[in-house]
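Dear V.,

Thank you for sending over the compound details. I've combined the ligand you provided, fe (ii) ion, with the protein sequence from our construct and run the structure prediction for the complex. I'm sharing the raw inputs here so there's no ambiguity about protonation or stereochemistry in the SMILES, which I know was a concern on your side last time.
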Amino acid sequence: MSTLALHRQTFGDPADAGNILTREEANALLNEWVKNDRLRLHMQQVGHLMAAWARERERLGPEDQWRWEMAGLLHDADWDQWPEDHCRRIIEELERRHVDPEIIRAIASHGPAHFGVEPVTTMDKMLYAFDELSGLVHAYSLMRPGGYDGMELKGVLKRLKEKTFAAGVNRDDITDACARAGITQNELIAFIIAHQGR
Ligand SMILES: [Fe+2]
Ligand SMILES: [Fe+2]
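Below is the predicted structure of the protein with fe (ii) ion bound, written out as structure tokens.
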């Protein structure tokens, strides 16, 4: 991830609260900006986890589930074409489209050590928490003959301890994110195993 600091703490216009893109608009943006299949899959997986968490743990309704999913689905939208400008471009695009400031803020805080924006809301914290761990669990599924079938927590924990496995995944960020979200790493991994494979 880039080390670009955003040098700002407020995002979007409060007057835009409640404004969301349609699924079609969000998918069109995703497909237009992200040509890399692996990255697109990562964003879809994080979006899927965010929606599942909103539904099952936060007991939110369909519209809020989509708000959470949208934050996940678009969080890395500018990484493919403008990695040096990640995530300033997508923030500015969503501001231009008058998207709800909460969604923009969640995207802006998905890497506090990089972007200099602290995760505050539960949506912010869960996006940060799912981001790196989702990728590690997916990498693990690719090396298992059955993929996600029969995947166990202990297998993921073992890979997590191997620093050379999915070396780009920052273990310190995962520890930090779980502490901020107030959940254990094991709980987060179990949730990802249960939801990411489907
Ligand atoms: Fe990112
Ligand atoms: Fe990401």
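A first observation: The CA atoms of residues 9 and 187 lie 30 Å apart.

Warm regards,
I. M.
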